[in-house]
Amino acid sequence: MTQLIAFPTVSRDSNLPLIEWVETYLASHGITSHVWPDPDQPHKAALFAHVGPDVEGAVVLSGHTDVVPVDGQPWDTDPWEVVEKDGKYYGRGTCDMKGFDALAIWALVEAHYADISRPLQIALSFDEEVGCTGAPPMIEAMQGVLPKGDVVIVGEPSMMKAVTGHKGGNAYMTHMIGFEVHSSIYYQGVSAIHEAARLIQWANEQNESNAAATPAPMAAMFDPPYTTWHVGTIEGGTADNITAKDCNFNMGYRAVPGDDPAALDAMYFAKVNEVKAAMQAIHSEADI
User: Which listed residue (38, 101, 127, 128) is catalytic?
Assistant: First the structure.
């Protein structure tokens, strides 16, 4: 873990030095690694390896190599050095999630020297902290290179509890296009911000309706036990006395099992079309 933490693999930067170190370390124990460079980001790569019988059905230990930034944070110690204090390890990524990555590497080496009957694999991805965008291409790259795994253990911090399910999710970058007029005659224009508020209020109403409903048995296992809609960032407008020409926000949802993502998408699109029609009834240049 000390070695992994020493690599400052913030998502905006390269993870290649870490990947190269892991590849060399595994090779020193006679384990062949497969490195997949991201063609769209040559400074980043994933790594995966297999030990044990050359058959399908492996247990896959999966982790990401990137970490969140340390900029502007009041660290008392060097974030790129593991420091033990009061029985705890401090360093960027000790918990999320280079601690698990280190354990996965150790387990792979131990399994390589043991007479295991079921294969073990490791899969180290990138860009998890910026939207889990590195894992899907890594999984695709693994196909046909390693025997197909059967069970995946992702060592994300979870209060030392096994998490066997996760809500689904989707998000839409939404660009509201209004029509600018002076605010004293706002009714002749279209405020992108005001119209965005209609969609955000719709999200509030969906959350209130979902919260009031009786959850299905599978949904009841989650906290909260219903699908939630959320807008985390929003920006727009030109001046206080002008109806906003532009407004941008991300509308996302976290869906419980049983709620069809396609149906949720359709619900949002239907509301978008409703709001857009009202906007264009005022001015044809307005759009979403």
Answer: 128
DSSP H helical ranges for the chain:
2-5, 16-28, 98-113, 135-142, 192-212, 261-282
Q: Considering the entire predicted model, what is its pTM? A: 0.71
Three-state SS for 159?
Answer: coil
d(CA 49, CA 105): 10
Characterize 15-40 residue by residue with b for buried, 16 or more Cβ atoms within 10 angstroms of its Cβ, and e for exposed. Answer: bbebbeebbeebeeeebebebbebee
Q: Is 187 helix (H, G, I), strand (E, B) or coil?
A: helix
**Quick one: tokens of 230?**
């959320």
DSSP letter (8 states) at residue 128: -
166 C-beta neighbours (distance < 10 Å), count = 11
- Our answer to whether residue 56 is catalytic in this structure is no
Return d(Cα 237, Cα 260) in angstroms, integer. 35
**Contacts made by residues 206-213, CB under 8 angstroms, sequence distance 24+:** 206/267
Per-residue pLDDT tens over the stretch 67-95 = 999 999 999 999 999 999 999 999 999 99
Per-residue pLDDT tens over the stretch 178-233: 999 999 999 999 999 999 999 999 999 999 999 999 999 999 999 999 999 999 99
User: Among the options 23, 38, 66, 195, which is catalytic?
Assistant: 66
- State phi, psi for 89 to the nearest 5 degrees: -100, 135
Q: Which domains does the chain have, with CATH numbers?
A: 2-154 (3.40.630.10), 168-282 (3.30.70.360)
Is residue 129 among the annotated active site residues?
Answer: no
